[in-house]
Automatic annotation (TrEMBL):
Family matches, as Gene3D superfamilies: 3.30.470.10, D-amino Acid Aminotransferase, subunit A, domain 2 (3.20.10.10)
Organism ancestry: Eukaryota, Fungi, Dikarya, Basidiomycota, Pucciniomycotina
Native species: Rhodotorula taiwanensis
Name this polypeptide is given: Aminodeoxychorismate lyase
Top-level taxonomic group: Eukaryota
A matching Pfam family: Aminotran_4
Gene Ontology terms for molecular function: catalytic activity
Disordered: annotated segments: 131-152
Amino acid sequence: MPADDASFQLMTALVYRAGSSDERFPLLSRHFARLKAAHAAFQQEEPSSWCSRVAMPSDDQMLVALHAAVQAAQREGNEGDLRLRLLVQETGEPRVEAFPLTPMPEYPVRLVLDDRPSSYSDPCMRYKTTRRKKYDDARSRRGATLHPSDAPDAPPFDAILWNAKGEVTETTIANIAFRFRDRPHEPYLTPRTECGLLQGVMRSELLEIGSIQEATILVEEVKKAARDNSLSVICFNAVRGIFSAYVAIDDSV
């Protein structure tokens, strides 16, 4: 799908830690690098997009925008940690939205597999932008709400996406990793970049420090392990951190 000028902004989501004395914006350099990589990708893959005509803001400009958004939120009484959306607009100007940060629960959240494959030919499925309809549609058709609950009859928290080859890719808001209990000596395995996914900031960090490894993970092996109760699942992104999950299997997938 061509990326026309008015249809999208580049985006990354991050956290402001109010109580931190040394790293108020964790992984900030990775967030800046992510935006620059997205801008370069759209220049190449969608030469008609605004990214081909408009330069990226500098790191200093983006940092000023982040601090201004935090200060505005604090003036409104939000003194705790914040969830921030750092956007690069089609004018090249940074814009930041700030929200109170809601922590994830300690119990594992329920995930369900999407009922159809996702195509990753659109760069908006590989680089984070405000064009999120395909992710929203996946949650909608699977009844996922992004509202965690441990009630047995509660709707799922999120949907797991997969590609045309039957390879797991990600959830609609996070990267994902699996540990198969019949392979206890293996680390958590996360889908390979080549499978098609958003390369999240937390994913990059966990790969670099060796907490997870890339692998090709098939939908069928996830379904089998989930049915056998031999699967451990974690999800992660820069806002929610690392959180536990489980895969609920039904006959529709």
